[in-house]
Each structure stands twice: as structure tokens, then as C-alpha cells.
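tmp note - Disulfide bond formation protein DsbA
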Amino acid sequence: MIRKLLILSVLVLAGATFTGATWYNMRPEPVSKLTSVPPKLAEGLIRSHSPSLGPQDAPVTIVEFFDPACEACRAFYPIVKDIMTKEGGSVRLVLRYTPFHRGASEEAIRVLEAARMQNAFEPVLEAILREQPRWATHGAEATDELLQIAAAAGLNVEQARSQMLFPGTTGIINQDRADVEAMGVKGTPTFFVNGIRLDPFGEDELRALVAKEIKASGGS
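out:
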């Protein structure tokens, strides 16, 4: 009798273990918490001056609080570009400047804004991210290095030197700093997808949230 009870107990335990393992393997992929920006802060998510890549009428907008001197931003840029490429025009990217690395960040932002005035924003952005280890060391300013890198991507350096002093760029940086604080951004990159904050943070979570929003918009 005792032997039968022992065997029965082992079988019950094995069944429970199998059921638990099956549930674990079949559980849904992690889905980001749906934390939307409060209405009173919504206008601070995207400003009219914010650089934007991709179709303006795309059903899904990724807002990235972005520091050109940030290693993680450099690492995530090709991921975001891959998402935009694979989703075939359903996604646009809006960048908000988040100069957490002080001098180096601000100089890079001024170069990017000069590039935008010359319609060379995207190639210059990709060049300074690709060459980030050359100029973003210890948060120090490296204007000449940045301009050399940008020049190789098509920037007119002579024009850029005066464009970098444009007072409007200081206004953009100050407004973005205020929005960073208002939105509670503590690190870069920080992503919002259609106004929903990506939390938890990660590549898989970003891809899943973008896919969810595309589906919600009626896309595939």
C-alpha cells in the first residue's frame, strides 16, 4: 500500500512539473506595460522642431530620447532602422535631444542641426554614431573631430561653423532639456511608441510594441 501511494505521489508530481514546464514554454512573449503619456504632458513628447525620419503620416511613431554621445543609442540605432525597413513605411522616428554627456553631446547636436540646415541630417547622424568612439570620450568637446567626420558624410564645414552658432539651436536644446525633465527621462535611449512608454526596456520589447501598434492601426 505504501509503495502504491509513493508511486502515485511521484506520478502526480511529475504531472505537475510537466504542466508547469509546458505553460512556461508556451507563455506569451513579454509585452510592455501600457503606460501612455498623461494628456497634460503629451505636447512635450513631439515638438515641431524635432528631427524626424520616415513617413510623416506613418501610423506608428517612435519617439526616442536620444544622446548622440550615448553608446546604447549608437547600439540601438541599427535596430530602429531595421524595424523601419521591415515595416515598410509604417513607422517614423522622432528624435528628442537628451544631452546627458554635456559638452560632447551639445557639440554633436549643433553639428546635427547644421546638417539639418544643409539637408544632410541622416547621413551625418549615421556617421557620427558610427565614429562615436573617436569623439565622445569622457564627455569632452571634440568639435574639429566631429566636423571632420561630418564632412566625410557630406557636410559643408565652412557653412556649418556659422550654422552651429545659430541661436535657434540653443532654444531647441533648452526646450528638449525641459521636456526630458518633464517626461521623467533618466537614461538614453528612452522610447515611446505612439505615446506609450517602453517599459520594460529592450530590443524584443520594442519590436513587440511596434508590431502591436501597427496591428492596432489596421496593418499586418
